[in-house]
């Protein structure tokens, strides 16, 4: 059936005038609430105010506007049931065929640091969700639009189908409407269960945590082929996050591709100089900074050419043709950069299967990290701490040189992205050997030095980072014997004295960060 009467009541008024004008041209009668009606009338659109339509003026500072049987019966009546149709006729209530509503901006209001509880409560929309839910429930007869982005598609449908909207489109709109009210109520619950005290102070973690993510795409499979998987993203896109990727070419991204691409992108983003990060199985197997993407790539690759095979490679600068050509000479699963030159894109296009992503280089962090455990969810704030040179404490007789200090900070940044226990040897802005994910720190130290040897890289004169303190001197002895002359670690072990003495005994410099970077 065609749309004859619409009710428009929106807080976000973007695009509403043009939309209402188009509806009016299509012969639709428009009902509207206070502010929306004023805006439409001023733009020359004929509207009937809800108060005069119901004969019941808005009251209680707008708390009651549309909450009236004439509105809700008009929305909820089933057009396929003669009893409903005749009940409307008997009560002289015209049907409402289209509901265009978006809600009071609750999330934006409570995001203000000085938002009071009273303000928050006043921004809980009551009449809006009631209409949205009514219209969505009755989607067989009513179309409901909660997102201005859907105005053009609705108009297109109406224009091509003589004022009608297809049942499929109405169903999709209804799904979106219920998701809209669910997210809205979730935000209210998160807020109310996180406040305490007279000043509505917010705790980081609400008593009820309502999460709201939207499907980007189902994935072919999960971590293994027998597992099903999908990728969801935060509807409030975090600036510069992997989820804002654009895929320029290549096969469909897999579950592991996305997880590794995230590790690569988060790591490469932390560097200011041109950097390249190569990830395998969630760990960096090569990281370097240099004066160009090509130079950084070559150094990163040389850390561990064997492991780099089939890696995920990220850059923090525009990928140019020379870097693209070099990367294409190895087997690579995913390439990520903020932009690509046209020449680089042509170069990459020669291997059509390689997945190529661009992600805007912006600073942004997830508010929370999540890890699922049996029957529960671990939630924490992200590890977005970066130590500065003045936070470092030299604990040995030998001081690090300026170059060593730079390399120690570089090694420390890399170690943050290596699974614990992490040991990272570096020199001159590049990794030389990475020991990752071992149950003992001393084994990680041995593995890192073995890997450097396998890649024909000398550790003589290198620096080394340990993501957490050395519990005994044995780990330190291994890295010093391998050639390290300066060490960065958090400190804080009960045996710090023993470890410092070991460093002094062997004439190496050691600095404490006072911060640990476990990563599991
Ligand atoms: N109280 C009601 O009956 C009611 N009916 C609609 N609203 C909301 O009022 C807003 C639009 O108001 P206005 O047209 O006055 O700018 C919309 O976000 C809509 O969801 C209401 N407001 C709050 O509950």
From TrEMBL:
Keywords: Hydrolase, Multifunctional enzyme, Purine biosynthesis, Transferase
UniProt-listed Enzyme Commission number(s): 2.1.2.3, 3.5.4.10
Gene Ontology biological process terms from the UniProt entry: 'de novo' IMP biosynthetic process
Domain MGS-like: 1-146
Swiss-Prot/TrEMBL catalytic activity: IMP + H2O = 5-formamido-1-(5-phospho-D-ribosyl)imidazole-4-carboxamide; (6R)-10-formyltetrahydrofolate + 5-amino-1-(5-phospho-beta-D-ribosyl)imidazole-4-carboxamide = 5-formamido-1-(5-phospho-D-ribosyl)imidazole-4-carboxamide + (6S)-5,6,7,8-tetrahydrofolate
Species for this entry: Nitrosospira multiformis (strain ATCC 25196 / NCIMB 11849 / C 71)
GO molecular function: IMP cyclohydrolase activity; phosphoribosylaminoimidazolecarboxamide formyltransferase activity
Gene3D superfamilies in alphabetical order: 3.40.140.20, Methylglyoxal synthase-like domain
UniProt family annotation: Belongs to the PurH family.
Taxonomic placement: Bacteria, Pseudomonadati, Pseudomonadota, Betaproteobacteria, Nitrosomonadales
Protein name: Bifunctional purine biosynthesis protein PurH
Top-level taxon of the source organism: Bacteria
GO cellular component, one term: cytosol
Entry text on domains: The IMP cyclohydrolase activity resides in the N-terminal region.
This protein's encoding gene: purH
Record pathway: Purine metabolism; IMP biosynthesis via de novo pathway; IMP from 5-formamido-1-(5-phospho-D-ribosyl)imidazole-4-carboxamide: step 1/1; Purine metabolism; IMP biosynthesis via de novo pathway; 5-formamido-1-(5-phospho-D-ribosyl)imidazole-4-carboxamide from 5-amino-1-(5-phospho-D-ribosyl)imidazole-4-carboxamide (10-formyl THF route): step 1/1
